């Protein structure tokens, strides 16, 4: 609810890493690991900002931020085929109006 993200290992109650105020205080409403690249994850905040984290490139801050300006995004999920090496990775955005939007991610964050 405060924009903090914690990375846990299943065998410990303490986080391996923690990023406080990663969204400038906006609640995170969705977070998902990339299906095609293990060190990349995506976070959606309550202000319709999508943050892309690549832990191999930068483990302190997101490597990119994209604002969806048209209307509020209420949730997101990722689509892709991890067993294929084509690097196709998409973000499915559900908007407040009920509209669904699919955007494809740049290859540099999607290729295995």
From TrEMBL:
GO biological process: intraciliary transport
Organism: Falcunculus frontatus
Domain of life of the organism encoding this protein: Eukaryota
UniProt GO cellular component terms: cilium; cytoplasmic dynein complex
Designated gene of the protein: Wdr60
Identification of the protein by name: WDR60 protein
Alphabetical list of InterPro entries matching this protein: DYNC2I1
MF GO annotations: dynein heavy chain binding; dynein light chain binding
Transmembrane segments: none
């Amino acid at each position: 609810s405060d924009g903090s993200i914690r990375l846990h290992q299943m065998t410990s109650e303490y986080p391996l890493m923690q990023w406080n105020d990663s969204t400038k205080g906006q609640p995170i409403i969705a977070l998902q690991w990339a299906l095609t690249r293990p060190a990349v994850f995506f976070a959606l905040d309550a202000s319709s900002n999508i943050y892309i984290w690549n832990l191999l490139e930068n483990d302190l801050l997101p490597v990119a931020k994209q604002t969806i300006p048209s209307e509020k995004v209420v949730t997101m999920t990722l689509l892709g085929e991890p067993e294929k090496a084509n690097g196709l990775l998409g973000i499915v955005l559900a908007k407040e109006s009920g509209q669904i939007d699919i955007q494809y991610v740049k290859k540099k964050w999607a290729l295995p």
